[in-house]
């Protein structure tokens, strides 16, 4: 039996800003309606609702109620920042099983306007609690420190990730931090949790986004270029950093391998790469664990160039470090990949981009989801 | 809050948090597969057995990785910045999280030998901490 092919047919963001008058569910709904309009579909076509947000106990129920949808498939799976990327695989399988035909996947947070800092329902491990690690940065710092020790990754290489993110952001009219910075600027910013400094950290913004997934058959009857879901993977190796077994290698290895195998394509086939950059170390480890370079060479790959005009364009929106970061960045990895593969990205467009990969980390290098997308199936 | 946040010490964690009453750090061991593990659980994370006993460690190990925390929203920790949060690899194998104390935070390195001490929180809870060891990792 031939597997039903599925495609992302709509993508949009909403309220990517520092101040908003909308609530988180407003923003999820606005993004969803925009993504449906982008797809040439209507909310009455939706029969699958996938959502995550730190604001809601039952996000897909909250969103569906607001939209006025009674779905046949509902999914609020929470894998932190990896959730919505994992939802693409879940939606694909639901559509392939005939359980639904038009799925929306959405996320939103208004944390910046509400508190000025990360809004999260994250629980703490009793075995970490008495020691005062900062959530989540100290967990990433523990990984960065070990990576520097084992593989010779330098502070300068970490800083270069942030510098490159700003270069991409300068080409993205929606980016919240388009001003250029230098390696020295990063190294002069205050230490927060060694070795990570303030400019190694993602932004704290508002924002939401949504994508629409349906069958490739239906996608062909819609106005825009379908972006086919070629491969998906998901995994997690731990929840809390104290339970991570190897602090320099993540479950992205298994997760990425599953996505590559399903797609029948590998790193060398990718024209654009999006890796969830909550902190600068993430991009380095993501490139290694997805197979773009051998373990330990991620810092050198960054130095070789992942910015505009390079052979390996990574985080072309500016990423969580420079575009926006409303708590979980996963949805923006998907939106940017879709736009790059449709050729909609203006000054930051990667020429003739046909294949892209989005990899999201959730929690503290814990949850992982990979999606391989292609505009020529 | 000027006292250290107390851990939830119910269940399998109870033996861990009260181990320091006699100055000895103990870890859970699965009697089915023989492996020590951390953190404490009702069942072995290696083989799934619930046959768990507790064994005394030498309380020595080396720093596997660490971070120096420079700010905190919690008053107890904010009053103590900068402080070290580390994963310590015990000589017996498992890694545990703890603060490294009694030293200049700038002197802490991966591989540094450390030995355990305990902070008595009352309520029969003794929080394991580590400090630089004299005489190596043991």
Characteristics of this structure?
heterodimer; A: about 375 residues; nine-stranded mixed sheet; two-stranded antiparallel sheet; B: mainly beta; OB fold (Dihydrolipoamide Acetyltransferase, E2P); five-stranded antiparallel sheet; two-stranded antiparallel ribbon; about 40% strand
> What is the CATH class of chain B?
Mainly Beta
CATH architecture of the largest domain in chain A: 3-Layer(aba) Sandwich
Cα end-to-end separation of chain B: 37 Å
What percent strand of chain B?
A: 35-45%
How does this structure look, described?
The complex is a heterodimer of chains A (377) and B (138). Chain A has helices spanning 24-39, 59-67, 83-96, 111-114, 137-151, 155-169, 183-188, 216-219, 252-263, 280-289, 298-304, 319-322, 330-342; strands spanning 6-14, 48-52, 73-75, 103-109, 191-193, 196-197, 207-215, 227-236, 272-275, 355-362, 367-374. Chain A is α/β, with parallel strands linked by helices and 377 residues long. In chain A, the strands form two sheets. Chain A has a nine-stranded mixed beta sheet with strand order 3-2-4-7-1-8-11-10-9, sandwiched between helices. Chain A has a two-stranded antiparallel sheet with strand order 5-6. The longest helix of chain A has 16 residues, at 24-39. The model of chain A has no long low-confidence stretch (mean pLDDT 97). Chain B starts with 13 loop residues before the first helix and ends in a 6-residue tail after the last strand. In chain B, strand 4 (83-90) and strand 5 (95-100) form a beta hairpin. Chain B has a single domain, classed as OB fold (Dihydrolipoamide Acetyltransferase, E2P). Chain B contains two helices and seven strands; from the N terminus they run αβββαββββ. Chain B has helices at residues 14-18, 75-78, and strands at 26-30, 52-56, 60-69, 83-90, 95-100, 113-122, 125-132. The interface between A and B is medium-sized, with 27 and 34 residues.
């Amino acid at each position: 039996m031939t597997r039903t092919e599925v495609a992302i047919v709509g993508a949009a963001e909403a309220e990517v800003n520092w101040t908003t008058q909308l609530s988180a569910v407003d923003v999820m709904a606005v993004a969803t309606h925009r993504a449906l309009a982008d797809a040439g579909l209507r909310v009455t076509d939706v029969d699958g609702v996938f959502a995550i947000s730190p604001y809601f106990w039952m996000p897909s129920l909250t969103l569906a109620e607001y939209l006025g949808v009674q779905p046949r498939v509902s999914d609020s799976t929470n894998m932190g920042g990896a959730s919505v990327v994992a939802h693409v695989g879940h939606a694909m399988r639901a559509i392939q099983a005939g359980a639904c035909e038009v799925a929306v996947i959405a996320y939103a947070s208004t944390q910046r306007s509400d508190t000025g800092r990360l809004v999260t329902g994250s629980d703490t491990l009793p075995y970490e609690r008495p020691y005062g690690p900062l959530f989540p940065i100290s967990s990433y710092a523990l990984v960065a420190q070990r990576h520097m020790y084992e593989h010779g990754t330098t502070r300068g290489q970490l800083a270069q990730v942030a510098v490159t993110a700003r270069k991409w952001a300068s080409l993205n009219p929606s980016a919240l931090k388009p001003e250029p910075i230098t390696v020295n600027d990063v190294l002069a910013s205050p230490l927060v949790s060694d070795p990570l400094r303030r400019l190694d950290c993602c932004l704290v913004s508002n924002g939401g986004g949504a994508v629409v997934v349906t069958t490739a058959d239906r996608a062909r009857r819609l106005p825009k270029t379908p972006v086919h879901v070629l491969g998906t993977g998901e995994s997690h190796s731990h929840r809390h950093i104290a339970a991570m077994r190897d602090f320099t290698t993540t479950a992205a290895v298994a997760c990425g391998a599953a996505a590559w195998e399903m797609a029948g394509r590998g790193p060398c086939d990718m024209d654009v790469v999006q890796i969830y950059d909550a902190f600068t170390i993430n991009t380095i480890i993501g490139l290694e664990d997805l197979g773009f370079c051998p373990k330990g060479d991620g810092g050198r790959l960054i130095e070789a160039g992942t910015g505009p005009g390079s052979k390996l364009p990574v985080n072309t929106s500016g990423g969580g470090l420079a575009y926006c970061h409303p708590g979980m960045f996963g949805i923006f990895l998907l939106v940017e990949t879709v736009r790059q593969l449709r050729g909609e990205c203006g000054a930051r467009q990667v020429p003739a981009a046909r294949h892209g990969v989005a990899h999201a980390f959730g929690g503290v290098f814990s949850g992982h989801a990979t999606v391989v997308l292609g505009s020529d199936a | 809050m000027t006292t250290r946040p107390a851990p939830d010490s119910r269940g399998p964690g109870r033996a861990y948090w009260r181990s320091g009453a006699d100055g000895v750090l103990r870890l859970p061991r699965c009697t089915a597969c023989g492996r020590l593990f951390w953190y404490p659980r009702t069942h072995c994370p290696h083989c799934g057995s619930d046959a768990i006993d507790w064994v005394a460690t030498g309380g020595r190990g080396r720093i596997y990785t660490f971070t120096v925390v420079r700010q905190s929203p919690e008053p107890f920790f904010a009053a103590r910045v900068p402080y070290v949060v580390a994963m310590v690899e015990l000589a017996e194998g498992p890694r545990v999280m703890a603060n490294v104390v009694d030293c200049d935070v700038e002197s802490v390195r991966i591989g540094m030998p450390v030995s355990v001490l305990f902070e008595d929180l009352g309520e029969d809870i003794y929080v394991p901490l580590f400090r630089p060891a004299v005489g190596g990792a043991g």
